[in-house]
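From the thread on structure requests for the teaching lab: each student submitted one protein with a one-line request. Submission from student K.M.:

"Model Orotate phosphoribosyltransferase from Lactobacillus ultunensis DSM 16047, tokens only."
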Amino acid sequence: MHKDQIISQLIKEKIITISPDKPFTYASGMLSPIYTDLRLTVSYPELREMIASDLANLIAKEFPEATIIGGVATAGIPHAAWVADKLHLPMIYVRPKPKDHGKGRQIEGRFTKDDKIVLIDDLITTGGSVLNAVKATEKDGGHVIGVSSIFTYYLPDAKENFKKANIKYAPLLSYPELLKKENESGHISSDQYDVLKTWHEDPWAWGKKFEK
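Reply posted by the TA:
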């Protein structure tokens, strides 16, 4: 596994951005002092190779019965393709919503009700997007046995959402690991470390101080 190397490169290439005073707004409406733009990983061959290799090994270990790898549009698609290639498995991908033309598909690729599908996304914050992809896949007759991602913030909301959906989740990297590495690397000050740790403990409460 290349966890330390991957985290180090995410930091080095500024794929992770920290802004405690001017927080970022996530799709869920949550405010955060950190933004992780994993879409940038596709531009770094060595980095994406390490990610694909580690994700493939992780999925083989956690979901050995998987018969199809699915990518969640759009950021999960390239990583799903690389992982499917390494595992020599078929691939599908899931759109955010059905197409408004042609056959109106939301799921692209072929699968049967007997297939066991693992969906891959780049990042999990609250889990909303990927769990919507799970629902869409199952609505079309697919059987999703689990979800994986490059990174997760491991927020309480996500844990609760996956628990309610009864979906197993196996991420490659987590926020606590990232925070530890950032602290050890000297890229953040002790004050920034405290802000990042406080946000993680209760992100919604942390964001309230920026409300007008």
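TA comment: The first helix runs from residue 3 to 12. Residues 1-208 form a domain with the Rossmann fold fold (CATH 3.40.50.2020).
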